[in-house]
Amino acid sequence: MEIIVQKFGGTSVANLECMQKVKEKVLKPLKEGKKVAIVLSAMAGETNRLIEMAKKWSKYPDPAEMDVLVSTGEQVSIALFTMLLKDAGIKARSLLGYQIPIRTDRDFGRARILDIDEEKLRNYFKNYDVLVVAGFQGCDCENRITTLGRGGSDTSAVALAAALKAKVCEIYTDVDGVYTTDPNICSSARRIDKIAYDEMLEMASMGAKVLQIRSVEFAKKYNVPILVRSTFKDGPGTLVTKEDPNMEAAMVSGIAYDKDQARVTLVDVYDRPGVAANIFEPIAAAGIVVDMIVQNPSRNGSTDMTFTVPRGNVEETVKILEKIKDKLGAKEILTDTNVSKVSVIGVGMRNHAGVAAIAFSALKNENINIMIISTSEIKISCLIEEKYTELAVRTLHEAFGLEKEE
């Protein structure tokens, strides 16, 4: 019995017309004699509507009850879609997270999947050809509903594919694959046929919105190939899979950008052991993610420490730093929210010299100043003024020859 897993996002199930298109995608593997597990998101805009409703009812909504509330969006989607399938004569049933079950930890709002009952899941297929599963949700050890966080339906789908040992996890969205950069700001962007897990992880973490980062982490861990395709038009899509050691990778695969950035600088902190820990430990304890970090050369026993955080966390970060400012010897705390990050990504960078030189030269030629640089084995990121984001993306895209083939 061959089982395939398909996932459809909110825009794919936004209304009846969209769901009819989804049904056609399901019929194809059924005609080939395969069983299908489908993971659905809530209808477009529904999760946001439920969150806003909770804010009207409660000043401080309880996280566990929030999960009960927002998980209803997927429940509506799977029920309506299963009705469509049954009307077409297909043996189908809907399943909520706890009915499988998809076991998670108790971190409400951002739970992590611990286990999926593979045997029970396979037993459902003895009576049904299609299982329509609610994405984004699971349950804890007490069967309390949990949700996986924004984009969690991608993770649900990959986890199901891993449990069922599916050959591929097909993720359908409103775009026809992963592009070399955002086609909305760079018309020469092209679809990538195949991309390695590590490259996709970097692109997802750097702002690319096609796949949720935890789903790619899960796919890499369990070696689940992901095929990203469009719900609304046919095409080969993009295959996200393990790196092929027998093929020479392109130097650069894509350019990503992230405008959700803010720069924080502590001026004249003590330059001595333990200061960095004193700065970043309380920030981490508050659940704030620190990204890029740079420390200026010491002068008279003091230094400036600059780092970036998500824009929405600036005020909280400053409040934390104000409490320890005197202990650190800092003269002042500076912030800048008019910044963004652009990143050059590619596994081929491991074996090619001069990638940084090409990137920095291209930005220099457009008079774009680089405030902070961070690197990994397959990525170079630059913090720049936000107003230059689109220009920087187009410039780097051209500099590395990523345009559509003529």
TrEMBL record:
Pathway(s) served: Amino-acid biosynthesis; L-threonine biosynthesis; L-threonine from L-aspartate: step 1/5; Amino-acid biosynthesis; L-methionine biosynthesis via de novo pathway; L-homoserine from L-aspartate: step 1/3; Amino-acid biosynthesis; L-lysine biosynthesis via DAP pathway; (S)-tetrahydrodipicolinate from L-aspartate: step 1/4
Enzyme Commission identifier(s): 2.7.2.4
Catalytic function, reaction form: L-aspartate + ATP = 4-phospho-L-aspartate + ADP
Pfam families associated with the record: AA_kinase, ACT, ACT_9
Keyword ATP-binding recorded: yes
Domain spans labelled ACT: 264-338, 344-406
Gene Ontology CC annotation, any one: cytosol
InterPro entries with a match to the protein in the record: AceGlu_kinase-like_sf (IPR036393), ACT-like_dom_sf (IPR045865), ACT_Aspartokinase (IPR054352), ACT_dom (IPR002912), AKii-LysC-BS (IPR041740), Asp/Glu/Uridylate_kinase (IPR001048), Asp_kin_monofn (IPR005260), Asp_kinase (IPR001341)
Top-level lineage group: Bacteria
Record key words, sorted: Amino-acid biosynthesis, ATP-binding, Kinase, Lysine biosynthesis, Nucleotide-binding, Transferase
GO BP field: homoserine biosynthetic process; lysine biosynthetic process via diaminopimelate; threonine biosynthetic process
GO MF: aspartate kinase activity; ATP binding
Residues holding ATP: 7-10, 173-174, 179, 209-210
PROSITE patterns linked: ACT (PS51671), ASPARTOKINASE (PS00324)
Amino-acid positions noted as binding substrate in the UniProt annotation, renumbered to this chain: 47, 74
Family: Belongs to the aspartokinase family.
Entry protein name: Aspartokinase
Lineage: Bacteria, Pseudomonadati, Thermodesulfobacteriota, Desulfovibrionia, Desulfovibrionales
